[in-house]
Structures are given as structure tokens and as C-alpha cells.
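We store chain and fold; thus.
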Amino acid sequence: MNFFQSILFPYLHNKKAKLLGLWSIWVWGFILIGVSFYATQLMPLPSYFKGQIKKTMLFNGELMDGPSITIFTAPRPFVGTVGERQALAIRSWLGLSTDISVVLFSQDPSVFSFAELLSHRVSVEPNIDFTFLGTPFFHSMVARSKASSSDVSVVIDPNTVLLPDFIKTIRHAHRLDHDWLLFSSSKSVPHFPFHLDADGKHWLQDDGSRVKTQKLQDFLSQEWKWNLCEEKMLIAWNSGDLPLHKGVLPPFLYGKGLHNRWLINEALLSDFRFVFDASWAISNLYLNDLGQDFDRTSGDFLGLATGKRFWEVAGNSNLAMIYGSLYFHQQNFSNIFRLFQCGGYYLFINSAQMVVYPLRYKGSLSLRKEVMFKLTREKNTLECIDTIRSTEGTKDCSVKNYLNVSMPISLSLSLEILLSLRADKNKTVVLAVVGYSYKDMLMSWVCRLHHLQISNFLVCALDDDIYEFCVLQGLPVFKYANLETKISFDNCHFGTECFQKVTKVKSRMVLQIVKLGYNVLMSDVDIYWFKNPLPLLSSFGPAVLVAQSDEYKLTGPINLPRRLNSGFYYAHSDAMTIAALEKVVEHAANSNLSEQPSFYDTLCGEGGYNRIDDSRCLEPQTNLTVQFLDRDLFPNGAYKDLWQERNVKEACLIKGCFIIHNNWISGRRKKLERQVPSGLWEYDMSTRMCLQTWHKTKFAYF
């Protein structure tokens, strides 16, 4: 071995050993990475995180081709400060993305006018259920929202301002491959010193300078107060196949408490969808100085001017106690997943399970500090988690205090107040007198009047059950206080003693109302209205009582003895009509029959001796004329066998019918069996909602 060999050999030998060592480190490194990745895949993940990453285009770090989003809300009239606040909120939504459209639930003219001033992305939906004072029903709002074709539906308070992180959060949530429902509690601020520019895309200070998003976030973090019990929150869900919850959503009134908590509680218990709290990921705020909460000490106790109507709050409390599991099994909100941003990443945290799931990665990060302390990102994550956990106590609240409301479910509105609120410009009302056994037919009748845009109706309740039902359904109802008998559910049809007593209430109530100066169209609830008959009926003028004929024969007089149907007649408020009705009521009080024979015998004379032609009678003492209506326009249940037609509606429309009476058949069940399949039915009894054109399917139950 020469000199050079003696020098190079040890060098080459050492170099080779070093290279082999390096190669072994690399190989073992790759093996460890592979084992780690495999182990990560085996870690138990909630099913809604598996396969969550979908291919999405990125542009400047932002998600593109986002989902279509429809935001649904129920604004109050756009007047004064309330209107300004609502306008600011809605413009803040529209400025976030062109993927957002807005639907306003309202029947108020000012809302239509406001929508016309904005883009085509804002529309008004009047075809949901409202109370007679204009409060929308939450279950109808949700049903309409679920019928939307958008990828994501959002229900939100009309005063809530959204900041840009809303659209980012929704786009990330939409990437989950499991159906989901999120909610985000709104933060109240005492003031909000910013406004939108003309385009609605940039926030400005009072001096006109633009405000960066970070400054808005900083302002919100300093000023906000959080109280989940106040029910100010947004709820969003994707348009998946799974329902939001088991069972049926009760007819809660929107904005009157507990409906949001009820929905979230049932969604969590049902476990159909991945339900998570996005309150830390979505910045949404409202000004807390509007004073819209219910106040028992308010001078406007009935709430007709301010909207503080105590019976609406009591109704929601009653429904929350009876339906679902909120009262018996309230979910602990600290035991659900929360979505939040930390260091530019979206993470799900469940502090009860002590685990964090990154939205964009499979796998999990333990909340145990000794494991996460090694990396800077994990340190930042722990700091974010500590911040969230420090505020958890402020978000949990018990609803028991809200459920133990002792207020009665009562309108506390007198008949005189209801008449002043409901009568049309001619001082005319439509009156229905009904007991609980006919609640389903009452609601179909009410829904039909709503579709015809007839709002001047009143309901006289014959028992406590139907009265409470009507209050919860938002109907203008008053109770007849002097009924001396209990209304039978299935045995109060024509010919029964119950029927005789109930029908006599009708004429008494009509007499009471006409004495107060109002015209009355008395209508049974088993009458289907094709179009508004009031213009025709009122055209007969004063001193004429207009009534349906119960004659079934196709030829001959229609005013033969006892063929006046007291289930549909129009009484004008004048001296002659009042005097004649007093005679009818007195006659019925001394009769063992129903009121219907008393009408004919008193006005047309026993045997019909007051008849002046084939369709009229003249009561000689009061000089009141009784006009029997054309049966082609106002057919009874036996006329021309119209109810036997294959298409009852088409047959009636060809004749030009105003109504058709579902009489000449005995019993509530038989009436339903005839009317519901005919298509002359407007109410879904299973969901307590009027059937609308946007319903995907129409069901009727009895």
C-alpha cells in the first residue's frame, strides 16, 4: 500500500460509512412518515369529517365557485329607525357575494317598496303563514326555506349585520360531505359607528374613509355582549337529503322566543345532521337599543303599537313545553362542536371530548398541552382554544325559566277591539262560530280566505280548547262566554241536541255584532269559497237579509218552507235587520229545534205565507226582505250532485260558483271524507300550515 493508498483508503471507507448512515436515516424517515400517515387514517373521526375535502378552485387563497346562498328573514315595516337598521343589515348581506340572494317574508307594502329599490337578488315572499297581526310563523318560514333550490339556506334576524367571515365560513362548511346545520349567536353592541358605501361593498367611517375588516373585528371584540338566551342568532343548513330533525316543528311565532333553541335541541338529539356552533367563526351583530323584547310593565300591554304582545310569548313557551324534548332533555351546548378560525385555519373543537379537528385535514389534534406544545402552530391553537373555553359559560343558559311562564294563552282583546281591527272599509266582517271538533275544517276555511286575500274575518270559539287552538294559530278569536253545554267531538252534527244549542249561538253573535254597527257575513266552516262574495252580497243594500237556499230540487221555488240555510247569510247593520234578528233569536230560544227553522218561520212565515215570489220573502212587521241566493252561484251540498262530480272544483268553476256548502251530509268525519279528497282543502293538519304553491307535496290528514 503506497502513501496515497494509505491516505485515501481510510477516507473512502469513512465516506462510504457516512453515506450508508445517511441513506438509512432517510429510509427510516420515510417509513416513519408512512406509519404516521397510516395511523392518522386509523384514528376515529366523526363520520361527517371523513372525505370532507372536495376539489375546489383557489384564487388568491380564497375559495371560488362557492355555493348559492339564500338568506331568509322576516322584517318589520321599513319605517323610522327600525327600517334604517334593517336596510343596513340587508345591504351588508348582499355586499358579501353575488352568490347571495335574500327573501323577505312579509305582506307589508313598505317591504315590497324596499325590495324594489334593491337588486333582483331581493324578493318578497308573502305566501307563508302569519298571525292576524302580521307576526310570521317560524315553522312556515323554515318550510319555505327548505323548499329553496339554493345550496345553502340561512334564517336570520332582520337587524343582524354580517361581516365578511360569514361567506368564508359558509363556503368552508359547504365542503363537508355530510349534511349539516350550523348556528351562530349574534353579538349585541351598544352602537355601530360605521355605514356602507353606495355599492354596499365597503364599510365607511363617518369621515368617509374605508374601514378594514380587521378594524371591524377589533371593534366587535371590544364592544360585544353575548347571550344565547336572547335567541338572536342565524341558523344555516345545506340542501341535503336528510331532515333537520325528527318529528314536526310546532307553530312557533318568529321572534317571540325559544324557537331557535327548540330547533337546535331537536337537531342535536335527532342526530341526522352534523350540528355545530359557528359563533366564533361568523361575525354577526345587532344594536341592542331597539327595546323589542317583551315587557310586562309596558304601558302598551296589548302590544298593538309596539309589537310586545304577551300572548305570543306565552304561546311559544307553551309549545316548547308540550312538543319535543327541550323541556325534558335540554342539550348542553358545551358538548357540541364549535367551528373557529385560528392562524388562518378553520378548526372544529369539542372541549368536552378534549379534541380538535382541522377542517382541511384528516386527523385530530389532542387538546393536551404536553402533546401540542412542540409546534408554534399548536401553541397558537391552544391560545385560541383557551379563549373559546373561557367564554363557554356565557353561552350556556337554561330555558326552564322561559318555559315556566304563568301567563295565560289569551288574546285579552275584546270583541269591540277585534271588530275595529278586522272590519273592512265598509264595516263588514265575516264570522265563523266553531267548536274544537271542527278545528281542522276551520283552518282549511281560514287558509282559503288567506289565499283569497280576505282578512276581515273573526272566529267565535265555543269552548276553551278551540279558543286556545285559535290563539296559537294566530287567529282573531273571541270566546262565547255563555255556552252551557260541552261540545261533543264527533256527535254535534245536524239533528243532535248539541247541534241545536250550538247553532243558536250563531244568530245571537250576529245580532250582537250588527248592534255594534257592523255588517256580518255568517259562514259555516264547511263552506269552500271559490271567490269573494262580499261585493255581490253587499250590493243588495240595507233592509235585505241575503241567505243561501237549502232547496235540492232542480226546478220550482227555492224559498219553500224551511229552505233557508242559516249557515251562510249576510246581515246589514240597520234598524230593520236588527229588529228581525231579535225576533229570530227570541223564537229560537223558545224552540226545541235548531235556529234554522226559526229563521224561516219568523221571516218567511210558517208554511211560507210571507213569500212574495219564488226567491224572496217579506217580513211584514219589520219590512225586512229575505233574498234567497242563486244556487248555481251558491250551491248547497245536495244541489245537482256537485260533490259527486269527478272534479268538483272544475264543475263549480264552470258554473261560476262563489262557494259550495259541504252540507246535506251528517257527521264531521263524513264531511272530511268528502271534502279532503275533492281537492277543496287548504290545510295540512300534520304540520299546522296552510298549503302553499311552493309545497313540494301536499298532504292532508284526518
The chain has a mean pLDDT of 81. Residues 3-42 form the longest helix (40 residues). The chain has 21 helices and 31 strands.
